Structures are given as structure tokens and as C-alpha cells.
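lol ok so funny story. i was supposed to be doing the assay writeup but got distracted and ended up predicting the structure for this chain instead. priorities right. anyway since i did it might as well share w the group, maybe its usefull for someone
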Amino acid sequence: MDLKQVKELRDLTGASVMDCRNALEEAKGNFEKAQEILKKKGLAIADKKGARETKAGLIEAYIHANGKMGVLVDLRCETDFVAQNPLFKELAHDIALQIAAMAPLYVSPEEIPEDVVKKEKEAYLAELKDSNKPEKIINQIVEGKLQKWYEEVCLLKQPFIKDQDEIVENVVKSYIAKIGENIKVYRFVRFEI
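and the output, tada:
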């Protein structure tokens, strides 16, 4: 086992030395495969912590250089100790940049009012009304269009601006795994002139 690889994997993922070593052993020395193993383990840990209450956190502010756009984001965690952690602050800043760049309207699909979702569905159904497709196919198309719409309007479903292969929700989960506490984007507001 190459200790240099273990250190590099730890620096990259934030996982413990033992977890990095075990992942490299499981991957038979394949660095990329070890990263995937740690990522899956981290997402599983994040899912377990998802039910924990988030009473602490911080408000991150971002004002764009031209002064015509700004963001406030309320990012929550379990303890004040974690709220002061540089990793937590880094995540808060990245989320503020994401909101500034991508202008989401909601944190997650669950936040969207039912009447708004219903209107979207009705619009998609109206588009497909004269398509002569079976109802089952139409419903699948509408569901696909809704998922695509969620990616546009919901922060957690958007591709992450710093890594388009990841969605914001998975980035937050990776920080939960690194930090060891539940983290939630509680709310945000974006101003633009």
C-alpha cells in the first residue's frame, strides 16, 4: 500500500486515513475506483444524517462585482462549532455563487407550491395533446419535462457550477460526509437590478 496514495486520497476526499486505506485496498490500488467507493460511502453517511435537526448555521452574503446583484443564503448545520468550520464556510460561499449564477427559484422540488407544479404539468400536457401518443408515453414525457424543469428552478437539482457532472444536492451530501453533521440549505434570496 502506497502511503502517498492514501494521503492524496485523504486530501482530496476528506475521508479518514483508515477509510482511504480500505477504499484503496478494495479498489486494488486503482485511485479513481477508490474515489468512487469513498463517494458512495459518503453519500450513504449523508443520507443517515439527513434526519438530524439543524439549529445552527450561518448567513452567507455575495455581492457581484458590478454591485447590481446579490445573494443571501441561510445554510444550517447541527452545531455552532461546525458553522465556524472553514469547509462549512466554503460550502456556504459556493452555494451563494451557485444562486448568483443560476438564479434558482426554490431550494428543492418539495418547496414548489402544488398549483405551480400543476400549471407546469398542464402546459406540458397541452403541448402533447395532439401528438397521438399513448397516455402512458405522454405521462412519461411530462414527467421527464418536469424533472428537467426542476433542474432549472430548484437549487439542489441544478448542475453544480464548479463541476457540471454533480448536482448541488450531491455536493452538499459530500460536505455532510466530510464534516460529519447534517447540513441543509434552509432558504435564500437573490436580488438583481
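The chain has a mean pLDDT of 88. Helices lie at 3-13, 17-26, 31-49, 80-83, 86-102, 114-128, 135-153, 168-179.
back to the writeup now i swear
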